[in-house]
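Re: the 265-residue chain
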Amino acid sequence: MNEMVNMGGAKVYTRKEMEKVFSEQKFQQSGLVDDATMVRLGKLKGVKYIITGSVNNVDLKWVSYQSARQGLGKGGSGSFIGDLALAAGAAALETQEGWNIGTELTIRILDVETGEVVLSKKMTGKHIIGKIPYPNYDALIGGIKKAASKSIETARPELSKYFPLKGYITMIKNSPDGKEKAVRISVGEKVGIKPGNELFVYTFEEVEDPMSGKKECDVQKLPVSLIVSSDQLQPNVAWALANVNKPEQLRMVKVGQLIERNPLK
């Protein structure tokens, strides 16, 4: 939930909010809910996707400095740069010593309309909770949550593909020399736009098949990327600078064209 809300691009309903629909429809709340019931629930609520998942494994192990050092190499390397690399590696290994918590999670996205699982991804994460001899319950649970959070970050690119941020260009300003172009877009911080986000611009064109005469709409992605400015980000709008490979490509950017955020890293 935290990842989805911070990423933007979707209105998120929590499980507690969804359970209200369960109560209204007199469904039984008894433990786990299978995919078929979740899809039925989603249709009642009018949502497009349901995200489910599971914690497959939690691993706790003590990593000593000696065991972590295996494979780093012993003694000098014979060169100044090599010795510096070994010293840096040794310093990094010291931060790995202690109780290491690892998690393996699976996240799935269900398409409510079709009931199809459109994404299923396994993720792993690790967090070091320190060198305390006997970690207490709070330390263990906190470590598991942080390890799980790190693992979920690896799903960010896939999630941002299924929940893209879209808008359109509302205004254009050109620099006096015509070599730079600033673009005002219809989405802002309120829906998840952040400084440095990269957006692509696309437009539509009607294409007619020369053989059948059938017409269809073709989506064309322009060779332009928009980089959101850090000092011109507002709740509902934002300004971005157009980035192109060739100066003449700036003329392709026009008011009314659609924009979409590139998948996140």
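Strands lie at 49-63, 98-111, 117-130, 166-174, 181-185, 198-208, 215-233, 238-244, 258-261.
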